[in-house]
# Entry
Amino acid sequence: MKSSRFGTPGFALFALFFASVLAFLDRQLLNILIRPIRADVGISDVQFSLLQGAAFAVVYSLAAFPMAYVADRFGRKQVILASIIVWSAMTVLFGMASSFTWLLVARMGLAIGEAGLSPAAISIVRQIYPQARQSFAVAILTISVYVGGGISMTIGGPALAALESHAASLPLEPWRLLFIACAALGLIGVVFLALMPEPRQAERAAATSSQAEFFRLLRLQRAAVGAYLTAFVGLNALAYAVMAWTPAMFMRSHAWTERQIGVAYGLTFIIGGVVGALGSGRLVGQLLQRGSANATVKVIRVAALLLGVATAMSAFVPDGTVALAFTAVGMIAMGSVIALGAFGFQALFPKAFSARAVAVYFLVPGTLGASLGPSAVPLLQRALGAGEDPGPALGIFAIALSLWAVFWLGKLLRVPQIDLTAAAKESRFG
# Structure
């Protein structure tokens, strides 16, 4: 990169981190605004869950492959800049939508925009940092999930309450103004990315890692791949369900206001997620140094069980403060699961195939898990006859999905390990 202060790896990481925070701010703001959106547009919990889950997750996962290809061909910085502009425009459209159809269109457009960020950002980070520091830099990007999502709730709840107290004098409904204001922050992200020089990509090596070779290794490793992806379909579904319905659970079960749950859950989300992400990464590193085999999977397995138990306890305890304490424990576990998920899967493959392995991980658990999680809770809630309270359904769902993940991760630990790097060399030179 260039020698100016804007061309340093530190500034590039900051710019990419800020863009990622904006992405999750736009994405998670929806979860704190269930009440006003439902009341204004007239949609059901099931329709709302489609906005939270399938409408975003399916489009995001499918768009990631072509967006990554465009980034490789035409420049990663340009793709990220275009992504910010697109998702900011879609956030404005969401704030102006007057029907479920337009909310759906805007949410899908948001997914297309955000799909261009992660592949390009991780590619830049891996280029500008030496190998010994890449994992920490990627961990910083992962933390943006909690910073962006937490800010959306911590500030979104109080901001909604403040705007609603002056609703009569406002040109639009308060929730609409929040989305428009959120979109306006995208301009700052555009400025930071514009100042960051595009790192010059090294000339591509000879074709030693073709698509055919990747799929050959995928078939060779199918037992481990199948067990890992199956476990993470459940874990992603649980994580998205927790993020989607925990605010509503506190508001409906414990009569907390948007302001109360926005501040309390937002801070819990940020702190717990950061502690879980950084702590689990450090723990895995220490276990690997001690020669522990399958350290990543073992840590994920413990975190999966903890996430299920903590979420269930938060759903069933009668006191809101105690429920929040269990939610904090669950956030630490979720931070571990999210931080280690893609990392653990790509570690099943030689380094030359890491990006494609991450793409497969996002496509399968990302699409299925994120689509299933938010929608399953209201459907189960309706089946249980639990009325408006999503707590019982969320608690039962958490235990079931946690045990599902623990079972499949246990099967993964019993799969014989294959030296895929050697297998890839045999394919190329044999």
